[in-house]
Amino acid sequence: MKTILCARPWLALLAALVFPAAALASTGGGTQTQLDLTATWYGISAVIVFIVAYGFVIAEEFLGLRKSKPVIVAAGVIWLLVALAYQSAGNTTTAPAAVEHNILEYAELLLFLLAAMTYVNTMQERNVFEALRAWLVSSGFSYKAIFWLTGVLAFFISPLADNLTTALVMAAVVLSVGTGNAKFVALACINIVVAANAGGAFSPFGDITTLMVWQKGLVNFTEFMPLFIPSAVNWLVPAIIMSFAVPQAHPAPIDEHIKIKPGGIMVICLFILTIIITVSFHNFLHMPPVLGMMTGLGLLKLFGFWIRRDEITKHPMEMGVDNNGAESLDEELQQIYKPRSRPFDIFISMKRAEWDTLMFFYGVVLSVGGLGTLGYMAILSDSVYVSLGPTWANILVGLASAIVDNIPIMFAVLTMEPEMGLKQWLLVTLTAGVGGSLLSVGSAAGVALMGQARGVYTFFSHLRWTWAIALGYAASIWVHLALN
């Protein structure tokens, strides 16, 4: 019976493609100017284009083709089909207005994430995370203590930094202390992935899906806080189970000390201030969150100017500049080599943002928006949320995010915007955020750690503990429904 329930939404979409006339009859009209074009050649072609593009995304690891490239092309092709479809129906206004709306949504997401990523990259450049890693590996903790410490830190750092960066930093600790102990490394990496994903689920700054729900205005910042306990349960249940398999021994002692560069602590304080500004702008002034984040980025840029001038003043020749800040290296050498050290430059932190991910979001937002303009989101909404009810539909969203990236899934839900109360919007935020932990390929943190701990933390080493993670997934949903 459960298998049939899970299959019904996807069967409905398949039926819409094979029997488009039936789908046309079953969907509502949406807005007054939006047409149902699912029965047309344009609509079916758009779905095929999206499926093919997403096939390339899934095969990124094997093809070496960055995931942003196929979806950006797909977005352009889909909106071309949307425009042609509406023009053939004599409507020349809906498609341009719809694509402008989607571009505005993406612009807010892009600028918000760019500001957040610049802060994280600046903290990395100032050795904030390296100092934390060095302290952990030099403290002489046992394997079991490292297992719990990295999990706790991943859970509490990811709500502020993104879960990918948090997972990479904690995994670096595990790899440093766990050399030669593959069992410990695999268990600790699984624990970190689950903790980082769970920690990001209750904060708009920790997970893209939570951020999207917040920016949409469906849930206020403080209203995410009730997800803290379900998120903690999602991590603690599998962590407790796995802890019994962690070795009791102590790793070989490592003596490593790294100092935070000047200004690093101030960057952390500015990031916290930026979060306060962002939340205040949104909650009290009803301004978009991106305005607060960009204001905070401006503050970081001003402080970055001070860091740069301080470094040039104190260490001019080491930085490859003269006392006036001009490059002092031989011009020919500059064209071939980079100096060993350069003065701090905030634009280098911006350059190191995850541009492939940011461009991937563009392709996803525009592609899903185009399919919604053609009428497919109305079909999915009826098939999933009306047929199954919001609770089962939101649980399925989390399960689907273990296989397909949770970004397009959440954006599809936001495009449908089904009639749900706060409890259900929190549920879909939770499931979309933590569902990816079920498989190693279900989240950016898992995929990154498979590369960082190649051959030790693998798809199958994670799969061995999927049953424990699934218990945590089910327990977190039960706790949310009971408490909230």
Features:
single chain; mainly alpha; 0% strand; disordered N terminus
The general outline is globular
Tell me the β content. Answer: under 5%
Radius of gyration: 24 Å
Largest β sheet strand count, sense and barrel closure: none
Query: Which runs of at least 5 residues are low in confidence (pLDDT < 50)?
Result: 1-32
What series of H and E elements makes up the topology?
HHHHHHHHHHHHHHHHHHHHHHHH
Secondary-structure class: mainly alpha
pLDDT average, as an integer?
A: 85
What does this 3D model show about the protein?
With 484 residues, this protein is mainly α. Helices cover 71% and strands 0% of the residues. The protein has 24 helices and no strands. It has helices at residues 2-18, 20-26, 41-58, 60-63, 68-88, 94-125, 128-137, 143-157, 163-177, 182-200, 208-215, 228-243, 264-285, 289-314, 331-336, 346-351, 355-374, 376-388, 390-400, 406-416, 422-434, 444-452, 459-463, 466-483. Helix 11 packs parallel to helix 20 (406-416). The longest helix has 32 residues, at 94-125. The radius of gyration is 24 Å and the shape is globular. The two termini are 28 Å apart. The model is unreliable at 1-32 (pLDDT under 50).
Short description:
This protein is mainly α. It has 24 helices and no strands.
Question: Layout of helices and strands, plus pairs?
Answer:
Blueprint: H1 2-18, H2 20-26, H3 41-58, H4 60-63, H5 68-88, H6 94-125, H7 128-137, H8 143-157, H9 163-177, H10 182-200, H11 208-215, H12 228-243, H13 264-285, H14 289-314, H15 331-336, H16 346-351, H17 355-374, H18 376-388, H19 390-400, H20 406-416, H21 422-434, H22 444-452, H23 459-463, H24 466-483
Helix pairs in contact: 1-2, 1-18, 3-5, 3-17, 5-6, 5-17, 6-13, 6-14, 6-17, 7-9, 8-9, 8-10, 8-12, 9-10, 9-22, 10-12, 11-20, 11-21, 12-24, 13-14, 17-20, 18-19, 18-20, 19-21, 21-24
